Every structure is written in structure tokens, then in C-alpha cells.
Amino acid sequence: MLHDAEPAAGSAPQSLNTRDMRRVLGSSLIGSVIEYYDFILYATAASLIFDKVFFSNLSPAVALFASFGTLAVGYIARPLGGIVFGHYGDRIGRKKMLVLSMLMMGGATVAIGLLPATAQIGIAAPIILVSLRFIQGISVGGEWGGATLMALEHAPASKRGFAAAFANAGGPAGGLLATFVVSGVSAATGSQFLEWGWRIPFLLSAVLILIGMIVRLKVAESPVFQELEAMAEERREKQKTPLSQVLRLHPRVVVVTLVASLGFYAMQGILTTWGVSVAVAEGVDRSAVLNIKGVAAVVTIVVCFAAARLSDRFGRRAVLTVGGIAGVLWAFPALQLMHNGTAWGFALAVIVGNGVIQGILAGPIGAYISEQFPAPVRYTGASLAYQGASTLGAGFTPMIATALVLAGGGGYALVGAFWIAVLAIGLVAVRMSREGAELRQKRPA
């Protein structure tokens, strides 16, 4: 059937160590780093800054909740970005959409850095902030699918997991860069950080976007898409919009891969967004918290690539299962460590949880999701599932965790139960799905 057609395996190189493949992988990584620098920079600011700058007229607890609410807006927009960019990425090319997503993200981030505080322009400030966060969400929603597919579709089948991990590694690498920049600026500006110093990391995005555009424009379009383009006339006659194809022919795959990804994002929201506010409230120095997050991101990157390698050898499901079980076992120890009011406690909770366990989950997830969908609708299908998980997982988790603590009278038992439940459901979804290798064998060449 046409909708399951996959370009011939011979169109891909047999090694990742070629000039073109190094350029593709480098572009996928650098582009994702810059996009996620902007996106995660906002999450850090929502934890430490925006409640005081844009919601200063509210009580501290309500202000933090409102700040996390603006954070959630970006995650709500991500599936929409995945649908819109996926539609055109499946229709006119992966590369064009990646260039557009980077321009949108950079423009929104710089605008946040220039946005006056609520004390200066009133309620217009948080309204504009929410609008800019929405644009960020649309952008990053389109970025992941394109960056993952550019790497995966250029790579040989036996190394697709490792290649796709370059896009996923951009998340923790971007978070690392954002964390260290915020930490450095915080130390340099001191008491002025909340006045104007916090704006500097946002304005630096302009330089990063310029670098990213130079790298990204040099990369060739995905060979899989180029071969699909050769069938364009036939495809236009027989294929409806990519979204309608995905929802009509692959609804179960969307649901299963979305649920399988939820645990990865729920842990991220609890450990690196909500957990930051908890640690600071418990008395841990703000700079120490940010530096610990940076160390955890380095661990995530290393483990992500190692797990991706293992997924090429042992299968995506096996690696994701190991990560999911480890996440369930770490829930309550991590929460207890985050609440003990020490830097070492927060460090152990985040380095093991975010660094090791999330790294295991992040490594194969890009290839796992992408391989579930046929090439003509892969950008749309993979983006819809992954970005839907990001919205439900990371987008609402900080707010949910805050609400659960309030409901539990200040304790974290309900947060732990929520953490375990999400990961357990994700494990069931992983075991319900099939391996990418099995899918490739069943599709015609």
C-alpha cells in the first residue's frame, strides 16, 4: 500500500562516519540545543524569576502556580506545532520546517528578554508573556520531529537509534547551556538579577540562532523525503492530508507511543522544574541548584547516547523497559532527597533521576516513536505522539505536583504515587508496541 511505502535501504549510507552524516548529525544536535536552550530557559525562569517579575501582585504560592501556568502554555502549544510543522514537513520537506522553527523560537525568546515587567505595564505583561510562550511551544513542537527525522532518515537502518539520539540529546544539552548561562549571569549580577540580569540569557538567543541558521542551511534534505518527492504526483492524487492519514490509519500507534513517552516527561517536570522550586524553598542555594541541574544534564547526554547504542543492539523496547522500571523504583527516594534541604540530597535525586534514568529513556525514544510510522506521514505522526506526551507529561506536571502537595497537606506522598502511576502506564504501552525492526521487515522496500 502506498501509505506504507518506505524508500529503499540502499539510499542511506552504511556508516555514520562520513562527511555528510557528520554534518547531518551535527546540525540535528546543534539545532536542537539552541531550540531547547530557549525553551528550557523559560522553564528555569518560571521556577525562579517570573513569579516575582510578572506575578508580583499575588501571594508567593499563587504566584508560583501562575508562573507554572504560563510554562504549561508552551507545552499545550507543542502538539499544535507538531501537527502544523508535521503537515508541511511531510508535504514540502523536513529542512524547510527546521529553518522556520528556529526563526520563530529565536524571535519569541528575544522578545521575552525585552518584555517590561507587570510593575511597568500592568496586566499586559503577563498576557504578552503567555503569547510569546505559545509561540515557543509551536516552534519546539515542530523542531523535534524534523531534527529527529533528518538524522534518522539519513542513517543506515542498523544505526538509526544512535543517529536519532542526536536530536534528543539537544534537550539536556540545551538545558545544560541554559542552566549554566543563568547561573553565571545570576552570580555576575547579584542583587540586580531579578531587576534586569535575568534578561541577558534571553537576549543571548539572538547570537545562538544566527549560529544555528548557518549550520542548518548547509544540510541536505532527508533522502527519504527526496525519494517520496519523486512519487509526489501519485501521492497527491491518492493521499489525503498527513494528519487525516495518521488519525485514520494509525490511531492506536499515536496513543501507544504517546503514553509510552509520558513517564519520560513527567520525571522531567518533577525533577527539573518543580524540584528546583522545592529545593530553593527548602534552603538550598539557588546557584548550587542550577549547577547541579547542569551536572545532571551532562550525565543525561552521556547516558542518552549509550542507551541509544544499546537500543540498536537489543531493541528499543528493552531499553525503555529498563528505564521505566528504574524510574518507578526511584520515585520516593528522589522525593525524599529533594525535600531534605541539602545540596547533596538534591544532587543525588536529580543526577540519578534526570541524569541516569531519563537518559536511558531519552536514548531510544526518538527512533522508537519515529519507526512506528510510515515515511509519508512520519513527521506528523511522530510529532503528534511525542509533543502530546510533552504537554501531558512535562507541561502540567509542575502544576499537578504543586496541587498534590497542597492537597496532601504539605507532604509529597501523592506526588510519588502520581510519578509511579504515570511510569507504570508507560511501561504497559511500551510492551504493547512492536519493535522498529519488526515494522521495517513488514514494509515493502
Automatic annotation (TrEMBL):
Transmembrane region(s): 29-50, 62-85, 97-115, 121-141, 162-184, 196-215, 253-276, 288-307, 319-338, 344-363, 384-406, 412-433
The keyword Cell membrane is annotated on this UniProt entry: yes
Topology with respect to the bilayer: Multi-pass membrane protein
Pfam family, one: MFS_1
UniProt cross-references to Gene3D superfamilies, sorted A to Z: MFS general substrate transporter like domains
Domain Major facilitator superfamily (MFS) profile: start-end pairs: 24-434
Keyword hit for tRNA processing: no
GO cellular component, one term: plasma membrane
Subcellular location(s) per record: Cell membrane
Location, primary (coarse class): membrane
Keywords of this entry: Cell membrane, Membrane, Transmembrane, Transmembrane helix, Transport
Top-level taxonomic group: Bacteria
GO molecular function, one term: transmembrane transporter activity
Protein name: MHS family MFS transporter
